[in-house]
Amino acid sequence: MANPIAFPSGETVVKTAATYGRDLLERVLSTFLQGTIGGIVITQPLDGSMWYAAGAGGVAAVVALGKGLVARWRDVSNSASLAKGV
């Protein structure tokens, strides 16, 4: 008879999801800040709106969120990174 499938405990699943969520949130927030600061650096000399800079940061954050979700779907891990073993 085949061996039964061993599922992780509920506590392990919650810890894994919490670690992944914390990692993804950190990446999305840092991408937003980096995109916004980069947008400000570009919009100031070009006399652009600060709202365009914030919008650019928001778009960058949404892309980072999508990448993190794809990374989770692609490889079951605690990381939002596409690199293997992270």
Tell me the span between the first and last alpha carbons.
36 Å
- Percent of sequence in beta strands: under 5%
Q: Describe the biggest sheet?
A: none
Note the run of SSEs as H and E.
Answer: HH
Based on helices, strands and strand pairing, what is the structural class? mainly alpha
How many E strands? 0
Low-pLDDT regions: none
Shape: rod-shaped
Question: How much helix is in the residues?
Answer: 55-70%
What is the CA-based Rg, rounded? 18 Å
Instruction: Tell me, rounded to a whole number, the average pLDDT.
Output: 75
Overview of the structural elements:
The chain is mostly helical. It has a domain at 26-74. It is built from two helices and no strands. Helix 1 runs antiparallel to helix 2. It is rod-shaped.
Which descriptors apply to this entry?
mainly alpha; 86 residues; 2 helices; single chain
Question: Could you outline the blueprint of secondary structure elements for this entry?
Answer:
Blueprint: H1 10-43, H2 50-74
How is this structure best summarized?
The protein has 86 residues and is mostly helical.
